[in-house]
Design a protein that fits this description.
The protein is mostly helical. It has helices at about 5-20, 25-30, 35-40, 45-65, 80-85, 85-100, 105-115, 120-145, 155-180, 185-205. It has 2 domains: about 1-50, Homeodomain-like (Arc Repressor Mutant, subunit A); about 65-205. The chain is built from 10 helices and no strands. Helix 1 (about 5-20) packs across helix 7 and helix 6 (about 85-100) runs antiparallel to helix 10. The chain is elongated, with a radius of gyration of 20 Å.
Length: about 210
């Protein structure tokens, strides 16, 4: 691991536990085992480290192969979506699970929850990528199922999308509030509970 990567990881660990404003460059340098002045060979400021972490995370969403695969695209002719919406959900869940299984990425989730109130770029990322876009996706998901007669005609896709998506967000917030370092067992339980909730909700609205 290069010195820059060590700075990245030490800063992320400290930011996710204490908050960006409570961490000094001296603390980061001490954690890496270098002098504070050596940080400037890699980053011009503490904020530059934060934005490098943020840029890395946004890239995960943009370039993840499974999240962007054709099988996971919303379309009225998507056979997987129409024949097995539970499996369709499971595939997306597995993509997020793969992303969160890396300790670094889980720490960034925690950091985003902390820092979105203090950084406009991170706030907008949370609003657009974590809230708005997923809700639009699941609204489209339920709209297609409704139009194809898979779920009941009296269903409201927008409300279903909020119900579908709010539970995993709650579970994630719960984990981040409870643990400094989220154990793998807790993460496994998160995905199990989220998927059980998804199956339950679909079963409630499916045409019998």
């Amino acid at each position: 691991m290069s010195t820059k990567e060590k700075i990245f990881d030490v800063a992320l660990d400290l930011f996710s536990k204490k908050g960006y404003d409570s961490v000094s460059l001296n603390e980061i340098a001490s954690g890496v085992g270098i002098k504070k002045s050596s940080i400037y060979s890699h980053y011009p400021s503490k904020e530059a480290i934060l934005m490098d972490i943020f840029d890395y995370f946004t890239g995960l969403f943009e370039f993840d192969e499974l999240l962007n695969s054709k099988e996971y695209m919303l379309a009225e002719d998507n056979e997987l979506l129409l024949s097995n919406p539970e499996l369709f959900y499971h595939m997306g869940s597995e993509a997020i699970k793969s992303m969160l299984s890396e300790e670094r990425n889980l720490k960034i989730w925690k950091l985003i929850f902390i820092q979105m109130h203090h950084n406009e770029d991170i706030r907008l990322f949370f609003q657009n990528e974590i809230l708005v876009k997923p809700l639009l996706f699941w609204n489209g998901f339920f709209t297609i199922l409704k139009e194809k007669g898979i779920i009941r005609k009296d269903c409201n896709p927008k409300l279903l999308a909020k119900e579908y998506y709010s539970f995993p967000i709650y579970l994630l917030l719960e984990m981040c509030a409870k643990y400094d370092d989220i154990p793998q067992s807790c993460l496994e339980n998160f995905f199990y509970e989220a998927e059980e909730h998804a199956k339950f909700l679909l079963e409630c609205v499916k045409v019998k």
